[in-house]
Amino acid sequence: MATIQDVAKAAGVSPMTVSHVINDHPHVRKSTREKVLLAMAKLDYRVNVAARNLRKGRTGTIGLAVPEVNRPYYGQLAALIIAATEKYGIRVSIEQTGASRENELDALSLSRNRLYDGLILSTVGMGPKDVERLKVDYPVVILGERIFDGPVDHVAMPNVDGSRAATRHLIDRGCRRIAMLSGQVGDEVDVSSLRRSGYRLALESAGIPYDPALVHELGSSTMRAGAERIRAMRDGGADFDGVFCVTDTVAVGVLRGLADLGIRVPDEVKVIGFDNVEEGEFLVPSLSTIDPDHVMMATRAVDLLVRRIEGSTSVDGHEEFVSHFSLVARESTGG
Amino acid sequence: MATIQDVAKAAGVSPMTVSHVINDHPHVRKSTREKVLLAMAKLDYRVNVAARNLRKGRTGTIGLAVPEVNRPYYGQLAALIIAATEKYGIRVSIEQTGASRENELDALSLSRNRLYDGLILSTVGMGPKDVERLKVDYPVVILGERIFDGPVDHVAMPNVDGSRAATRHLIDRGCRRIAMLSGQVGDEVDVSSLRRSGYRLALESAGIPYDPALVHELGSSTMRAGAERIRAMRDGGADFDGVFCVTDTVAVGVLRGLADLGIRVPDEVKVIGFDNVEEGEFLVPSLSTIDPDHVMMATRAVDLLVRRIEGSTSVDGHEEFVSHFSLVARESTGG
DNA sequence: TTGTATGCGTTATCAG
DNA sequence: CTGATAACGCATACAA
Description:
Two copies of one chain form a homodimer. In chain A, 41% of the residues lie in helices and 15% in strands. The model of chain A has no long low-confidence stretch (mean pLDDT 91). In chain A, helix 1 (4-11) crosses helix 2, helix 1 (4-11) crosses helix 3 and helix 9 (223-235) crosses helix 10. Chain A has eleven helices and twelve strands. The first copy, chain A, has three domains: 4-47, lambda repressor-like DNA-binding domains (434 Repressor (Amino-terminal Domain), Orthogonal Bundle); 60-157 and 294-324, 3-Layer(aba) Sandwich (Rossmann fold), CATH 3.40.50; 159-291, 3-Layer(aba) Sandwich (Rossmann fold). In chain A, the strands form three sheets. Chain A has a six-stranded parallel beta sheet with strand order 2-1-3-4-5-11, sandwiched between helices. In chain A, strands 7-6-8-9 form a four-stranded parallel beta sheet. A two-stranded antiparallel sheet of chain A has the order 10-12. Chain A has helices at residues 4-11, 15-22, 30-43, 49-56, 72-85, 101-110, 159-172, 191-206, 223-235, 248-261, 294-311, and strands at residues 61-66, 91-96, 118-123, 140-144, 153-156, 178-182, 215-217, 242-245, 270-272, 289-291, 320-322, 326-328. By secondary structure, chain A is an alpha/beta fold. The structure holds a DNA duplex. Chains A, B: Keywords: DNA-binding, Transcription, Transcription regulation. Chains A, B: This is DNA-binding LacI/PurR family transcriptional regulator. Chains A, B: InterPro entries: HTH_LacI, LacI/GalR-like_sensor, Lambda_DNA-bd_dom_sf, Peripla_BP_I. Chains A, B: GO terms for molecular function: DNA-binding transcription factor activity; transcription cis-regulatory region binding.
């Protein structure tokens, strides 16, 4: 493979001049530039990114650590983040953490090998106790709920307000016994806890008593868990006329479970989710949900990270960004 | 940031000894090793991957070019491919091509900048005419349908046989007027053409005449397109009792469209898709489909690529791998 | 078992 | 406007 040296020789100039041409430096005479470009074409020259990285101390790649690219919400996020990096000419390398605290911490230290110029980290396993570990000397943006007031920039979802709006919507549609299916609840600042808070706030505002028997914690936020749990609840004699699901994924399972029970949605029970995944619009019945503006979250995360990368350590403090949301009313709550 | 030199100084040895320790070379006395490890820990030493890459001529990263990580089938594939690279200690960087020929060719030449050790490329936009462009001097594995007998390794889906089995299944369940919704049909070797072939073969075997009026080409293989087209077909007076959809994504839309028309599935019309995406099991009705063994495809693609990377150019010829499939019968075809 | 010399390909700096 | 020099951090080959 041709190197800058080869091109220089072929063009009858010094390697430095070739470098100038490659990097679009001004002060290069037109005729020289053309000579060089010709030689480059003839030799099919390609820059060696590894060498450039070594010299510049940058890799041009950022890491994105998510539980799994194939999970509905994270897949969408990954797609948007990759799209958002394009305008900066940055590439994205994906690490799958499986939502485990261990792997999230690993991703954090992998980046320290100067593999990436920065890291966007979805914290699902890590909790507030791990805040100390975030004190690293390279750019990090946290995407998720479990770390607040950490030492780094943070992009979060409108969990409490969104959930409150979702629950409120069920109440407006006439529901009085509203079940909530959450994922695992931990230390007060995970997604499920936050969304439960919104749920409670909405009930309180409406003067509806909170009934612990209607609030269930799933082992995992999957379709299967949603389907199984809703059937078990009804089999156990639970009485509800509305269900707020912690994610659309769970809601898909709940719709399935209710169908198995022969319960009509929305006539007998109304259902709402959170995330606005693409298929919600096409389910039967179509799924009402909260749309947390993924595009904005992705864009913001990338912009924050790039700002840190460019400005190195010069940006003081850290930023907390919570995206806006909108309620999407579809058939599962009566349209 | 500490370098090998710093560690060497701190440990009172030469830089080379540190390197030996880092790379687990034998012939290092235990006591020396420990001295070095101690110094590394004290200085919080991290290898500089860029430097190592330059020296070794490898980057430890492969590229994965897919239309979009968020599309059902490709997201799943990406997740599996990333998982499959883990055992090799390789990272995956994702390029989104948007299914455009241009961007696919770009991905191909980007890799030539020695950014990646190899590339897994989903060809959707590129066609047989671009085969020449695949003659590159670094490892490439094609994942997709449109390139056959190219100069590189190729992992493909069982499109014809799978589609044939899907159509055959509808026939077995009593369908006689079977519609087919495909994506864009191009040059005989794209997914849609291949799946159409399977469809025709099944009809022929069963002695059912091929009716062009029942075969429709969608502008894009989306849920929306599926829903709209099936409604338009029925509005136009089309008469069918079964639908074979080119992908599960389209099938989800079709189920929705049929619901809009008040047509009962599977009683009046039976529906089957292709891909076995996760949500199929939880739809109402649950979706019958062809499962092309994604895990095997991902594993195979990674293994083939790694073989090329390790063996450099030493592997002769190229391999064509077509995965096996299984039929998943669910409610949409009568269980 | 450990150390020395050298170069991977590029670019920053500064001189011409 | 162009070029000489040096250095980024590491690992191969070989010598001691």
